[in-house]
UniProtKB/TrEMBL annotation:
Listed PANTHER family: PERSULFIDE DIOXYGENASE ETHE1, PERSULFIDE DIOXYGENASE ETHE1, MITOCHONDRIAL
Entries under InterPro entries matching the protein: Metallo-B-lactamas, Mito_Persulfide_Diox, POD-like_MBL-fold, Rhodanese-like_dom, Rhodanese-like_dom_sf, RibonucZ/Hydroxyglut_hydro
One MF annotation (Gene Ontology) recorded for this entry: sulfur dioxygenase activity
Organism listed in the record: Brachybacterium paraconglomeratum
Biological process per Gene Ontology, one example term: glutathione metabolic process
Matching SMART domains: Lactamase_B, RHOD
Name of this protein: MBL fold metallo-hydrolase
């Protein structure tokens, strides 16, 4: 048997290739839409991808199940569990609890593990040539290393109401009836690692075991004591903000993401085309340089998406393809680099990258507005209508913020502009922890017409300045 993990650092997301090497048959679980890595891996091992599946309707990225099935001729499988309201709306074989996919001597068994979502499946893997019972669990967003999939995303991302409580009860039952019924030796391979917004305290290790989680997970004492309410209370407390684009991911994944097919390299664009396109709103320029370089000068109206980094997450925060029909042009040294950035963008359904520019020379540039921590109070006094905006997560804001700041995370700011002053009514003074998230959010809002002033050094810089100011008094 072959079992390989393919991990996307951008979205903190794991896909898996499972194969029987004797038969040459392979299954891919939870693929991304940019499918070259799966095709290359199968080719490297001399395998045929005959099946593709996913654990659930994802909220944080667009599934590549349809894309990979179309490219390979593989059979697509999706969950048939969860009731009528949770059915996929594209052709695929439906899997129910206990159904199996056979790959020669390898058996993959679907188990219904609702809680994170009602239709969620986990997959038990048995290498029948080696052992009579499962040795691995692909747990998707059910169980992570040290944490569990959050049950509140349907409320946060899909606009539903109070589904978090039923989801939490389902999660408790899935742990009790499925997960804890497994032997301690079963290795657990989750769908996400640290940095994902699909849980609040995900571990950075790639795997865990049933026994380890049974002994040491935060939820284990609640299950041991059959304390459902205590479990629910602790599970729901302190979940991070859900990014606004998650709702679009849910809708598109239910319908089936558009097929990309064979993609060509982005075309090279000159400065004159960009200038006229930005003026007419038909082009959105993406500045991929580090934040420090952007702060020295950038094209007004451009987006700031340091790449590759978290390019998928950040473009999802800064560009809404449902309300913006502009073509994206990225700053990149060559077509191959632009194509790699495009790989990140299509993971969140930003399919409109049409070209690249190698330099900003010939384009008007200006220095984005910033304010030093020392001058922040004076600025706020002179402009009382301005809103001081903390674009970090709720938990970060609660742990400490600049006095008077309101919180609206960077992943929600562009989509909840009703919580901000209208462009003609006042400025936004933005900060995050170190400056990156604030730059992404600030330039998205600037492109939408807002005046945004960034706090130089963000919260970390303001905190250092506060300590320096207090030092003479202590002396």
């Amino acid at each position: 048997m072959l079992l390989e993990r393919l991990y996307d650092e951008d979205l903190s997301q794991a896909s898996y290739l499972v194969a029987c090497q004797d038969s040459g048959k392979a299954l891919v679980v939870d693929p991304r839409r940019d499918i070259a890595d799966y095709l290359d891996l199968a080719r490297h091992h001399g395998l045929r991808i005959v099946a593709v599946t996913e654990t659930h309707v994802h909220a944080d990225f667009l599934s590549g199940t349809r894309e990979l099935a179309a490219a390979t001729g593989a059979t697509a499988y999706v969950s048939g569990e969860g009731g009528e309201d949770w059915q996929y709306d594209f052709p695929a074989e439906r899997l129910h609890d206990g159904d199996t996919i056979e790959l020669g001597a390898v058996t993959i068994t679907a188990r219904h593990t609702p809680g994170h979502t009602p239709e969620h499946l986990s997959f038990l893997i048995t290498d029948t040539a080696f052992a009579p019972s499962p040795g691995y669990l692909l747990s998707g967003d059910f169980v992570f290393a040290g944490d569990l999939g959050r049950p509140d995303l349907l409320d946060e991302a899909a606009g539903m109401q109070d589904t978090r409580f039923e989801g939490a009860r389902q999660l408790f039952a899935s742990l009790r009836d499925v997960f804890l019924s497994l032997p301690d030796h079963v290795q657990v391979l989750p769908g996400h690692g640290a940095g994902s917004a699909c849980g609040k305290a995900l571990g950075a290790v790639p795997s865990t075991t049933v026994g380890y989680e049974r002994s040491f997970a935060w939820w284990a004492p609640h299950l041991a004591a059959d304390d459902e309410q205590g479990f629910i209370d602790e599970l729901l407390d302190g979940q991070p903000d859900a990014h606004a684009y998650f709702g679009r991911m849910k809708r598109q994944n239910v319908l089936g993401p558009a097929l990309l097919g064979e993609r060509t390299l982005p075309r090279r664009v000159d400065a004159s085309e960009i200038s006229s396109g930005m003026a007419s709103g038909t082009i959105a320029l993406v500045d991929t340089r580090p934040v420090a370089a952007v702060h020295e000068g950038m094209v007004p109206g451009a987006l700031s998406i340091p790449a590759p980094g978290k390019a998928a997450s950040h473009i999802g925060w800064a560009f809404d393809p449902e309300s913006d029909d502009a073509e994206i042009i990225v700053l990149a040294p060559d077509a191959e680099t632009a194509a790699r950035i495009q790989d990140h963008f299509v993971r969140v359904g930003i399919d409109v990258l049409g070209g690249y520019v190698t330099s900003l020379e010939g384009l008007q540039q200006s220095v984005p507005q910033r304010v030093s921590p020392a001058d922040l109070d004076q600025l706020r006094s002179s402009r009382p209508e301005a809103v001081l905006l903390d674009v970090r997560n709720k938990s970060e804001h609660s742990a400490g913020t600049i006095p008077g700041a309101q919180q609206l995370s960077a992943g929600r700011a562009l989509f909840h502009r009703d919580q901000l002053p209208a462009p003609t009514e006042g400025a936004v003074i933005a900060f995050c922890q170190s400056g990156l998230r604030a730059s992404v959010a600030a330039n998205a809002l600037r492109r939408a017409g807002h005046e945004v002033i960034e706090v130089d050094g963000s919260y970390a810089g303001w905190s250092r300045w506060q300590q320096e100011e207090a030092a003479p008094a202590r002396g």
